[in-house]
Design a protein that fits this description.
- The structure holds three protein chains of three kinds.
- Chain A is mainly α.
- Chain A is 73% helix and 0% strand.
- Chain A is built from six helices and no strands.
- Chain A is elongated.
- Chain B is mostly helical.
- Chain B has 16 helices and two strands.
- In chain B, α7 runs parallel beside α10, α9 runs parallel beside α11 and α15 packs antiparallel against α16.
- The longest helix of chain B is centred in the first third of the chain and has 37 residues.
- The radius of gyration of chain B is 24 Å and the shape is globular.
- Chain C is an alpha+beta fold.
- The chains are: A mainly alpha, B mainly alpha, C alpha+beta.
- Chains in contact: A-B, B-C.
- At the B-C interface, α3, α10, α11, α12 and α13 of B face α1, α2, β7 and β9 of C.
């Protein structure tokens, strides 16, 4: 053993990278890509809206801003519960981890349900994503297609997030996370906060401006 | 919230020759998580697509050389495509669209990135595998259904997508305009799926390079292929999601009845072009930056000299990648975009010529006072420099907005893109294939056949594509089924025929390469671990590289291009050979 | 030199051909230097027994030279190109008093709306021709370009004019014909099955001839219009 150590006079550790483990680095890098995805969609929305301002009625005329503001609040709360879950696993609090994860699953599902109801109500008034069947009083059809595309893609991200949260919860109930092994919870949190952040931007430009 | 990153311990991943490999055949070669096998899987898939793309090009050349005449054996393609061997315009449009799509997305891009980012990155940085081996496996197996869908389009009713590889809306959104519905949808779906494959790959490559470099492998000791692939991966990471978003909007327009690109309801056809080229111009650099890396590596090896201006080379790649984001409008000079905007895009486009010139001069300076060995990878690389320069020059004509007016959408553009993508990227791919073939398969390709292939390809490549500049000057539009319809283009049949005959010869020359490739897999000369007497880490392990790559974590002492160094009696000095006089031992490095 | 371009018939021809020539000579010089150096190195430094390469890592002064020189070159090209470009494409630089004509592109034909004797579009004596664009010589022409279905591209090789016609947009293009005669009009943007045969003719008349053509053609068009109205009654 001592003979081998004598040979090793050079550092044996890999070069310092980002200073975070691969899974977390990978998630950050993936989220950069997501940023570009939403930038493309939002950019398209802005270009279309600037060219056809008349097709987009004032906010609040058609959309129920109060309901969605409440929904935004729900999603922000789910970010808080996610932070709580991560804090719990850091402190070795397994029960806390499970509870807060379940709370996040619940709030995420709640958000999606309200969005589904909103879609149903809007759709029944002829506010549709398609040109065919589009009601004249709902502004131009551009309004409908951009609205459903932007909020729909966000909704898809939330849905994937809820599925991932369920997966994470199941693993947590099996004791899969410890203060030393918490990468799964941390990257789940990163994704979830990102989705939350995107919603705040979308809510602002689609519902408020 | 700060968590101390656990110290990575890869020791169990490295290859231990005393252990037997217990993986089954399927784990080893089909659903493999080994980056080298995944690279080789991408290699076979993209070579197959390269062949398909080449065959499509032959069909195009038949029609342009002998417009409206029956092609021998063409009738076998069926009544809906070539009745009596005469190509129908709808089939021509599909063939031309798919030649572009397949070559760009399924041949050149995976050959450069899918193959070499996978195969080279861990080997060159001294890592046992990628950061996320399972994600890596997924990235290949996502690309397979994308490829299947893309090929399936040829066999559906209505034929394959026929709106060009750029798929300009509204031609691509409304089947009334092209007569194609299913093919167009399959095209869109396939590229959306392929995007996920590219995304999974690039997350992997970036994480691996950032986090898994071997001890001593600082950023400025990275071999240039790894640098180029790193920057390319960043471009893919940021550009592909924009394309995916645009493709999804296109798919909605095609199938769900939205109208993002439909002017009748206030949508904008130009929006598609902006989104497409916002992705598309970084894509152009995705298709050339890795080639820069390979060629730099091989030219230094062939010249037995360090790469001239290593830092400038890295800086040039990085600045091309950054500038690549603000030049997309030069594809749209004649699109009705605001002319002031066009002038701005011209300026940014011209700036890109500067880092490109730096690279070319550095390659030549690398040869200066060298000791040039013309092994076949070196020949392909030198041809790359020469051909790429021509592509760069024709790019200046197109970048100058007034000169672009007559040249836009003509064969001048076709000549330009092929000088860059065939004379450039594809020659670099041949260089890389022949250079790293021994590390992939443990055998060398036949040098004599390679040289025959090289000279034939070089000559016929130029005979095919150089005259196209002239066609463009005379005003022959691209994507045109029958130019003899125009009186002023009637006289171009002779030039076109010369081009077509040369193209057939060029294709035949590629069969020599294909034969050499297959023959060498089984019968090639055993290569040993370092046939090119090269410096980077991949040459320190046996050929083919074993599972886990390195027996133990290698240590890097110097940059990758210490050829003809005074420190060594040989004309090369591998990165992992300890210096003759060891420096004072450094303290152990820790993370963060 | 004519660079293989079709014979020029507009004021743009000389300008664009000159710009092409300037870039051609600049790049030809660079081409000779680069390829010459490459060939020189390949021959001069080929492997011979006993040759040893010099391990040079770089040279900052050289790097600066070959950064600055190409930069100056391309900036010069961009600077010269920009003003020519804006003269040709900027709508506010279209000369006043231009002859105005409407061109509507659709799969797969060019519908030309001629202003008639009063020289104004949108008046009663407008008349329509298909795939035939008639213009007077020596007067700037302003084409109002629109598209019906997909993107087409209005390409006049002899006049060095190319402009996409985009659905939902009206784009003004101008040029000044200098030589009378018949010239081709083509579509340069893939627009579907019949793209390859979406061609037309541009006829440049001397001013007198042009007036005569307008009168006779206008009368024919009016006749046809009348017949159609009567028939539809």
């Amino acid at each position: 053993m001592s003979q081998q150590e004598a040979v090793v006079v050079y550092p044996r550790h890999p070069m310092p990278g980002l200073g975070v483990y691969n899974l977390k680095a990978g998630m950050w890098i993936f989220l950069l890509s997501e940023v570009m995805f939403f930038t493309g969609l939002i950019g398209a929305y802005i270009i279309l809206r600037f060219a056809q301002p008349d097709a987009f009625p004032e906010p609040g005329v058609l959309l129920n801003v109060q309901l969605t503001a409440f929904n935004t609040f729900v999603l922000i709360c789910s970010s808080v519960t996610m932070v709580k879950a991560f804090a719990a696993v850091q402190n070795g609090d397994q029960r806390g981890l499970r509870l807060w994860l379940l709370a996040t699953v619940f709030l995420g599902t709640f958000f999606l349900s309200i969005q589904a109801i909103e879609y149903y109500l809007l759709g029944s008034h002829g506010f549709l994503p398609t040109i065919a069947g589009y009601a004249a009083e709902a502004g131009g059809p551009l309004y409908g297609m951009t609205f459903y595309t932007l909020t729909g893609f966000h909704g898809a991200h939330v849905s994937i997030g809820v599925l991932a949260l369920i997966f994470t919860s199941v693993k947590a109930f099996r004791g899969g996370y410890t203060p030393e092994q918490l990468g799964g919870v941390e990257i789940m949190g990163l994704y979830w906060h990102f989705v939350d952040l995107v919603w705040i931007i979308l809510f602002t430009i689609v519902y408020l401006i | 919230m700060s968590t101390v990153a656990p110290t990575p311990n890869y020791s169990d991943l490295f290859h231990d020759p005393s252990h037997e490999d217990h993986r089954s055949f399927v784990q080893k070669y089909i659903f493999s998580t080994d980056h080298k096998i995944i690279g080789i899987q991408f290699l076979f898939m993209s070579l197959l697509f390269l062949l398909i793309g080449g065959l499509l090009a032959m069909l195009i050349r038949w029609q342009l050389g002998w417009p409206g005449e029956p092609m021998p054996g063409g009738a076998a393609l069926g009544e809906t495509r070539m009745p009596g061997g005469i190509m129908l315009p709808e089939f021509y449009n599909s063939v031309m669209t798919m030649h572009g799509t397949i070559m760009i997305f399924f041949a050149v891009m995976p050959l450069l990135v899918g193959v070499y980012a996978n195969f080279l990155i861990p080997l060159q940085i001294g890592a046992p595998d990628m950061a996320f081996p399972k994600l890596n496996m997924a990235s290949f197996w996502i690309a397979v259904p994308a490829g299947v869908l893309m090929v399936a389009g040829f066999f559906v009713a209505g034929g394959h997508a026929a709106a060009g590889w750029t798929s300009y809306a509204p031609l691509s959104t409304n089947p009334e305009f092209t007569g194609v519905f299913t093919g167009q949808v399959l095209w869109t779906l396939s590229l959306i799926i392929l995007g996920f494959s590219s995304l999974a790959g690039s997350v992997n490559y970036i994480t691996t390079i950032v986090n898994m470099r071997a001890p001593g492998m600082t950023w400025f000791r990275l071999p240039l292929p790894t640098w180029a692939l790193f920057i390319t991966s960043i471009l893919i990471l940021l550009a592909i999601p924009v394309l995916t978003g645009a493709l999804i909007l296109l798919l909605f327009d095609q199938t769900l009845g939205t109208g993002f690109f439909n002017a009748e309801v206030g949508g904008q056809p130009l929006l598609w072009q902006h989104l497409f080229w916002y992705f598309g111009h970084p894509e152009v650099y995705i298709l050339i930056l890795p080639a820069f890396g390979f060629v730099s590596e091989i030219i230094a090896n062939g010249a037995r000299k360090p790469v001239f201006g290593y830092h400038a080379m890295v800086g040039a790649i990085a600045s091309i990648a950054i500038l690549g984001w603000i030049v997309w409008g030069h594809h749209m000079f004649q699109s009705g975009m605001n002319p002031m905007l066009g002038a701005g895009f011209m300026a940014t486009t011209m700036v890109i010529a500067v880092p490109t010139a730096i690279k070319v001069f550095n390659w030549i300076a690398t040869l200066w006072e060298g000791d040039l060995h013309f092994h076949s990878p070196m020949l392909y690389s030198l041809a790359f420099v020469s051909m790429f320069v021509i592509g760069g020059f024709s790019g200046i004509f197109l970048a100058s907005t007034p000169v672009d007016i007559p040249l836009h959408d003509t064969y001048f553009v076709v000549a330009h893109i092929h000088y860059v993508l065939f004379g450039g990227s594809l020659f670099a791919i041949f260089a890389a294939l022949t250079y790293w073939f021994p590390k992939m398969f443990g055998r060398l390709m036949n040098e004599g056949l390679n040289k025959v292939h090289f000279y034939l390809s070089f000559i016929f490549f130029n005979l095919v594509f150089f005259p196209m500049h002239e066609l463009g000057n005379r005003g022959m539009m691209r994507r045109i089924y029958d130019y003899t319809q125009y009186g002023f283009l009637d006289g171009l049949v002779d030039i076109n025929r010369l081009i077509s005959l040369s193209a057939f010869a060029l294709f035949a020359a590629q069969l020599i390469f294909a034969w050499n490739f297959i023959w060498s897999l089984f019968k090639g000369k055993k290569s040993g671990s370092n046939p090119w007497r090269a410096n980077s880490l991949e040459w320190s392990v046996p050929s083919p590289a074993p599972h886990g790559n390195f027996t133990f974590m290698p240590t890097v002492y110097r940059g990758p291009y210490e050829y003809s160094s005074v420190e060594s009696d040989e004309d090369y000095l591998p990165q992992d050979v300890p210096p003759a006089k060891p420096p004072v031992p450094e303290p152990e490095m820790t993370l963060a | 030199m004519d660079w293989g371009f079709p014979e020029s018939a507009s004021t743009f021809g000389a300008q664009i051909d000159a710009a092409y020539g300037a870039i051609f000579y600049a790049t030809a010089l660079a081409f000779v230097i680069v390829q010459g150096l490459l060939i020189y190195c390949i021959i001069r430094y080929r492997h011979r027994t006993g040759r040893k390469a010099k391990p040079i890592h770089g040279n900052t002064r050289l790097e600066i030279i070959w950064t600055v020189v190409p930069a100056l070159g391309v900036f010069y090209i961009a600077y010269v190109s920009a003003s020519v470009w804006l003269d040709m494409k900027s709508e506010d630089r279209i000369p006043a008093g231009a002859y105005e004509v409407g061109v509507h592109a659709s799969q797969f034909e060019w519908t030309v709306t001629n202003p008639g004797m009063d020289g104004r579009l949108g008046s009663d004596d407008d008349f329509v021709t298909r795939n035939q664009l008639h213009i007077p010589m020596g007067q700037p022409v302003r084409v109002l370009l629109t598209a019906e279905d997909v993107i087409h591209s209005f390409f006049l090789p002899n006049f060095r004019v190319k402009q996409d016609a985009v659905p939902g947009m009206q784009i003004a293009v101008w040029f000044e014909p200098t030589t009378a005669g018949e010239y081709p009009l083509g579509c340069a943007e893939l627009c579907g099955l019949g793209h390859y045969r979406m061609r037309g003719t541009v006829t440049v008349h001397s001013p007198d001839e042009f007036d005569a053509w307008q009168v006779s053609e206008g009368a024919v068009a009016a006749d046809i219009a009348e017949t159609n109205t009567v028939a539809s009654r």
